[in-house]
C-alpha cells in the first residue's frame, strides 16, 4: 500500500494557526464527550481510549481532554448526539465523505447540502462514493533512531497491523478498524509516539483537478470543515502538498 500522505504534509496541517487548532480541539472535544457519556473510564471504554489517543496526537492539552470528558455527565445533559455520514461529489466528479456529530439532523444536513452546492458540489445518496474508499485504522508514528524499519516491521506483525509505509521521519501504519484499539495499545506499550491515530476513510485512487476546479474544491473542503457539526472530511483529490487535508 502506498502512503496515504507524506509526513511533511501532515506536519504542515499541525502547523496551522491557533484559531484553526482551536477549532480542531473543539471537534475532538465533542468526540471525547460523546465517547465518554456512558463510561468515562478509558480503561474499560476502548472507544474513549482511541479518541484520547487521537487528541494527544493532535497535541491537545491534557486539561482540555479532562474537561471534555467531564462534559459527558454535565454539559451534554440529555442531548442525543448522533454520528451521521454524508456522501457526495465535488467539482470534476471528485468524491467526498463527511462525518458529523449532531443533535439536530435537519440543521446539519441542510448546512452540508448548501455548503456543497455553493461550491459546485452536490450531496448524494448513502453509498454513492464510499465504495471508492477503504475504512482503515491509521497511525502515524514518529521515526526515531531507536525505531528503525526492522523494529517497526516486527511491531506491526506482533500488533496485528496490515502494513506500514516508511517515510523520512515517520511511519504510516494501517490496520483493520476491528483491531485498531489493539494495535494502538500494543504500540503505546512499546513507547511509540503517535503523530496521528484514528480510523479514517482512505481513497483507493486519487483524481487530479485543473487549477480552477482545484481552487473551488479546496474552498468547499474548507467551508465544510468550518461547520460546527462536521468532524471529518475525506476526499479523493490530489492536493498540493501545502494544502493536503483529511
Structure description:
The structure is a single chain. By secondary structure, the protein is an alpha+beta fold. Helices cover 40% and strands 22% of the residues. The strands form 2 sheets. A 4-stranded antiparallel sheet has the order 3-1-2-8. Strands 5-6-4-7 form a 4-stranded antiparallel sheet. α2 packs antiparallel against α3 and α6 crosses α7.
Key terms:
four-stranded antiparallel β-sheet; globular; 40% helix; alpha+beta; 8 helices; 246 residues; 8 strands
Write the layout of secondary structure elements.
Layout: H1 7-14, H2 18-36, H3 46-57, H4 62-70, E1 82-89, E2 95-102, H5 105-118, E3 122-124, E4 133-142, H6 149-159, E5 163-166, E6 170-175, H7 180-189, E7 194-203, H8 211-226, E8 230-235
Antiparallel strand pairs: 1-2, 1-3, 2-8, 4-6, 4-7, 5-6
Helix pairs in contact: 2-3, 2-4, 6-7
> Average pLDDT, to the nearest integer?
88
The fraction of residues in strands falls at 15-25%
> Based on the structure, what is the oligomeric state of the protein chains?
single chain
- Give the spatial strand order of the biggest sheet: 3-1-2-8
Query: From the helix content, strand content and strand pairing, which structural class follows?
Result: alpha+beta
Shape: globular
- What is the string of helix and strand elements? HHHHEEHEEHEEHEHE
- Tell how many strands the DSSP assignment holds: 8
Helix content percent band: 40-55%
The major β-sheet equals:
4 strands, antiparallel
* Number of continuous helical runs: 8
Which spans have pLDDT < 50 for at least 5 consecutive residues?
7-12
CA gyration radius, whole angstroms:
18 Å
The N- and C-terminal alpha carbons lie at a distance of 18 Å
Amino acid at each position: 500500500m502506498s502512503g496515504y500522505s507524506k509526513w511533511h504534509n501532515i506536519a504542515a496541517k499541525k502547523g496551522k494557526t491557533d484559531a484553526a487548532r482551536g477549532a480542531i480541539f473543539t471537534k475532538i472535544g465533542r468526540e471525547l464527550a460523546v465517547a465518554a457519556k456512558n463510561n468515562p473510564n478509558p480503561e474499560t471504554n476502548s472507544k474513549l481510549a482511541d479518541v484520547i489517543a487521537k487528541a494527544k496526537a493532535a497535541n491537545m492539552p491534557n486539561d482540555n481532554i479532562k474537561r471534555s470528558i467531564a462534559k459527558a455527565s454535565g454539559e451534554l445533559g440529555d442531548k442525543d448526539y448522533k454520528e451521521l455520514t454524508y456522501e457526495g461529489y465535488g467539482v470534476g466528479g471528485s468524491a467526498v465523505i463527511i462525518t458529523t456529530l449532531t443533535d439536530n439532523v435537519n440543521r446539519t444536513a441542510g448546512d452540508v447540502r448548501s455548503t456543497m452546492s455553493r461550491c459546485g458540489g452536490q450531496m448524494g445518496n448513502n453509498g454513492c462514493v464510499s465504495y471508492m474508499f477503504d475504512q482503515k485504522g491509521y497511525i502515524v508514528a514518529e521515526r526515531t533512531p531507536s525505531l528503525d524499519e526492522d523494529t517497526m516491521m516486527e511491531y506491526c506483525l506482533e500488533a496485528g497491523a496490515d502494513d506500514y509505509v516508511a517515510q523520512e521521519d515517520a511511519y504510516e501504519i494501517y490496520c483493520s478498524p476491528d483491531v485498531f484499539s489493539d494495535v494502538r495499545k500494543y504500540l503505546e506499550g512499546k513507547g511509540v509516539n503517535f503523530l496521528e491515530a484514528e480510523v479514517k476513510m482512505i481513497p483507493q485512487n486519487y483524481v487530479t483537478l485543473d487549477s480552477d476546479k482545484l481552487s473551488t474544491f479546496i474552498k468547499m473542503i474548507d467551508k465544510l470543515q468550518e461547520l460546527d457539526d462536521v468532524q471529518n472530511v475525506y476526499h479523493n483529490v490530489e492536493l498540493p502538498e501545502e494544502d493536503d487535508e483529511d
